[in-house]
């Protein structure tokens, strides 16, 4: 059974940093593109970033480029999102998701809440 | 960036109704269009990918159509468990933008 479990969310002040993790199991992690998607309270999902199966290519939405870094550790079946210079508008539930094909996201975690507030 | 616009934003329908949700891309995206269903407190669920391919385990009353800039999700014979919010997403090229969502409510 495919499982994705996010962790690392919490309350952080504006300008602060946070590192999210996603533990994957039930599939060969190193074979798949992985994605972070966030959803602000009461809003629709927003695609944040994705990373190629071998970590050699990464892509970001403009609003986080230069502040967020997506990475992965295939030996540990783990995906990460390093977030810095956090803003109030980064407040959201952050999901990690596994690609099926061409960016269609087949499996999702339960999400981890990041709250940016003073 | 390519924008994805869904219509309507919400609709009210009855069990057994046929429902169609539209999604328009601001530029040609070929068939790189994905549909999700989301229920409160849950992650989105993949329904349709590549514009018209049904994801594994999704009931056949769901179907997708379109290519280029205009797409549609159709639910034939709406069931009680289908009341949810539906999102389209431009896939493949970054940023893989989501539409703003269509809420399907009970009439």
Key features?
heterodimer; A: 118 residues; mainly beta; seven-stranded mixed β-sheet; B: 107 residues; six-stranded mixed β-sheet
Brief digest:
By secondary structure, chain A is mainly β. Chain A has strands at 3-7, 10-12, 18-25, 34-39, 45-51, 58-60, 68-73, 78-83, 92-101, 104-108, 112-116. In chain A, strands 2, 4, 5, 6, 9, 10 and 11 form a 7-stranded mixed sheet that branches. In chain A, strands 1-3-8-7 form a 4-stranded antiparallel sheet, with no helix packed on it.
Describe this structure in words.
The complex is a heterodimer of chains A (118) and B (107). Helices cover 0% and strands 54% of the residues of chain A. Chain A has 118 residues and is mainly β. Chain A starts with a strand and ends with a strand. Chain B is built from no helices and ten strands. In chain B, strands 2-10-9-4-5-6 form a six-stranded mixed β-sheet, with no helix packed on it. In chain B, a hairpin with a 3-residue loop joins strand 5 and strand 6. The A-B interface holds A 35, 37, 44-47, 50, 59-62, 95, 97, 100-106, 108-111 and B 1, 32, 34, 36, 38, 43-46, 49-50, 55, 85, 87, 89, 91-101.
